[in-house]
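$ run holo --ligand "nicotinamide-adenine-dinucleotide" --emit C-alpha cells
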Amino acid sequence: LPVVDEGLTADPEFMGRLDDALSALAHARDIRLATPVIIPGGETAKNDSAHLARLYDAIYRAKLCRHCFVLAIGGGAVLDVAGYAAATAHRGIRLLRVPTTVLAQADSGVGVKNGINAFGRKNFLGTFAPPYAVFNDQRLLRTLSDRDWRAGAAEAVKVAVIKDATFFSWLEENAGQILTRDDAVMGEMIHRSAALHLEHIAGGGDPFEQGSARPLDFGHWAGHKLEQLTAYRLRHGEAVAIGMALDASYAAAAGLLRADVAERLIALLTQLHLPVNLPDGAGTDDLLAGIEEFREHLGGRLSITVPTALGQCVEIQSVDMDRMRQCIEKMLCLPCG
Ligand SMILES: NC(=O)c1ccc[n+]([C@@H]2O[C@H](COP(=O)([O-])OP(=O)(O)OC[C@H]3O[C@@H](n4cnc5c(N)ncnc54)[C@H](O)[C@@H]3O)[C@@H](O)[C@H]2O)c1
Ligand SMILES: [Zn+2]
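-- output --
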C-alpha cells in the first residue's frame, strides 16, 4: 500500500512515474499493489486523525496482512502517521520508508519511532517500531522548498553538537553550499547525520528509550513546545534550532559550556538561516511548561541533554527555572537589541 505525501505532487509527473515504477515491479515480482493513499504533508497529517482513519480504512479494504508492506513516501510527518497506522493495524504490518525531506532523510527516516499528535501534545500517540527498510534517494529532494531544505539541516547540527566536533566544523565550512543546495555537500551532510543517528539508535543500548538519557532530543523540549505554541507555524527543524540556541545559552549560563562555544552554535544556525530567537507570542511561562510536558512524555525523572563542548553532552536532572527564565527573556529581546 503506497502512502504518498501530497507535497510530492508539486512535480505533476511524480504520481505517474511512481505508478509506472510500482506497476512494473508488481508485475515482475507478482506483487499485489493497492491504490495509493495521498496524505497532506506537514503537521496536519499528525494533527487531524481523519488521515490516520483513512489509512486504517485503506489497509482494511486492501486486505493487508502482517506479511504485506506499507510503502510510506514523504516528509517526517507523513512517515510518522503512516508508520503509526502500519505498526498498529493487525499489531504490525511491515513498513518501508522513503523519506523525501532533508530532515526525514537525515534523521527520522532511519529512526524507530512513529506517532501522531493528540490533546495538543506532540507525538502523544505512537509506537517504537523499526522499519523493514529505508531508501534515501536525494533526487526526491529537488521539489522541496528552500525553507524545508534549511529546516532539515537543524537536526544535522544537533547531532554534530552532541556527538561529532569534526562534523560540526565541516558544517561551519560548508554552510554556504548547504544554503545554495549543492548536491554533493547536501548528500554528505545527510549521510553523516543519518549515520550518527543510526549509530546511536542501533548501538547506544536503548533503542526503545526505556532509560532516561536522550541525547538525540537536544533542543527538543523547547522545540516541541514552540511548535505547539505557534500552532505549528514553525517547522520542526526551525523549532529545534531555537530550542538548541536556548539550551546552549542555558548551559553557558550554568557554567557547563564555554560561552564562545554556545555563540559558535548560534552563529552556525544563523548562517544556515535558521531562527534562534523566540517568536512573538511565545510567553515565558507557557514555554517553561514544556519542561514538565517533556518529562511526562519521556517518563521517569527529568533528563535534559545539554552540550558541554562541541561533540560532547551531559544529561541534567534539574533545571534552574530562574536561570532558564533569564535565558528565555534574553532571547525574546534579541530582535530589538
Ligand atoms: N519519528 C521520529 O523519530 C522523528 C524524528 C524527527 C522528526 N520527526 C517528525 O517529523 C516531522 C517533521 O518532518 P519534516 O521536517 O520532514 O517536515 P514535514 O513532514 O512536516 O514536511 C514539510 C513539508 O514538505 C512537504 N514535502 C515533503 N517532501 C517533499 C518534496 N520532496 N517536495 C516538495 N514538498 C515536500 C510536505 O508536504 C510538507 O508540506 C515532525 O512532525 C517531527 O515531529 C519524527
Ligand atoms: Zn527532531
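-- notes --
The longest helix spans residues 183-203.
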